[in-house]
Specification:
Length: 257
Amino acid sequence: MAAVEFFSYYSNLFGDRWDGLLAALSGPVNYKELHFGDELEPYFLDEASWFAAASLPIEPGMDVLDMCAAPGGKTLVLAGALAGVGTLQSNDRSADRRTRLHRVINSSLPEAYRNIISVTGHDASRFGLHRKNSFDRILLDAPCSSERHVIESAAHLAEWTQKRISHLAQQQGAMLAAAVDALRPGGMMIYSTCALSSLENDQVVAKILKKRTGKVRVLEMDPEFEGTDRTEFGLQMLPDRCAGRGPIYCARLEKPE
C-alpha cells in the first residue's frame, strides 16, 4: 500500500515527467572523482552534490561548518577549498555515520587538511543556541526523503508515508533557522537536499525568509549543468535532465552585515 501511495504521490507531483524521472532515478549516477594525492583514496561524489558544496565560496582562513556532514563527500570539497588553513567543523548526530565520516576524512585527505577538521555529534537544530554568529560559511545538506534511495530499498518503500515529508520539512526548517543564527553577519550558506518535493526545498527557504525577516536573503546561483531546473529560490538537478546527476536542490543564502 505504501509503495502505491509513493508512486501515486510523485506521479501527481511531476505529471508526464514522472515516468522518465523514475527511470533515471533507478539508473546510473554521474560521479565526480575527488582525489587529493597518490597515497590517498579517491572519493566518488554525485556531481550534483559536488556542485552544491562547491557553490559555497570559501577562502583559506575561514571558519566553516558542515552541519550534517556524513558520509563525508561534501566535507572533502569544503576541506579542499580551505587547503589546510582555517577551521572546518564536520558535524553529524549519528554515531554510526560519524564513524564513516572519520574513515572518509582519514583515508582521503592529506594530514594538513585533516588537522583543521573537528568532527562533532551535536543536534544540528541547536547550533544557533550554542554557536551564535560563529561561522563564515555553513553547508546544511539536510536529512531528507532521499527518494532515490527509497526506490532502491523495498523496506524503505514499504515504510514511506506522505506525513514523513511534512515531518522532515519541520526538522529542516529548524536546522535552517539554527544555521542562520550560527552564521556571522556577512556570512553565506548553502541549503541543500536530495529530496524531490518543494515541501523540503523552496518551501523550507520561504519559511525561513519569513521567520528570520531581514536576517537572511537569497543569492542567485548560476547552474553548472545543462538541464538544471531553476526554482523560486535556487536550483534543482534531477537525473532525467542532468545526465544522471542528482537529485539535488540547493539555495544560497546570505546573512546581511
